[in-house]
Specification:
Elements lengths: L2 E8 L4 E2 L6 E11 L5 E10 L2 H11 L5 E14 L5 E14 L3 H14 L1
Parallel strand pairs: 4-6
Antiparallel strand pairs: 1-3, 1-5, 2-3, 3-4, 5-6
Length: about 120
């Protein structure tokens, strides 16, 4: 199994189960530019099964736009579409997560800015 490292920003707020047993988020990473000179974005779906990580880090520290480094391994998952078709997708199962831009820090900075105004 290969270990992959992605650094990017969350496309949306993470989806976390009520019991913190599963967290899912999409990480977007810029990988150069395309032939037209536009930024080339690569997206990867990440899933964490670590209850402690989900509750203490992902739920508290990640939100849309936050930057993170995710280390993990790709797995293939199967699912059924709404019309009943079977599909497969790749997910990056999180082994390690480093938050570079904490959501709590952004909220505190925004509150400080509002208070100073």
């Amino acid at each position: 199994m290969q270990t992959m490292v992605f650094t990017g920003r969350l496309a949306a707020d993470p989806q976390i189960s009520d019991d913190f047993g599963k967290a899912v988020f999409r990480l977007l990473e810029q990988r150069g530019v395309d032939g037209a000179g536009k930024p080339r974005l690569v997206g990867v779906n990440c899933v964490s099964w670590s209850k402690g990580l989900n509750e203490k880090v992902i739920a508290r520290g990640l939100a849309q736009g936050c930057e993170a480094v995710v280390v993990g391994a790709f797995i293939d998952t199967s699912y059924a579409t709404r019309d009943g078709q079977e599909r497969t997708a790749k997910e990056l199962v999180v082994n390690r997560l480093t938050v570079l831009d904490w959501a709590e820090d952004r909220e505190a900075h925004a509150a400080d800015t509002r208070a100073a105004a």
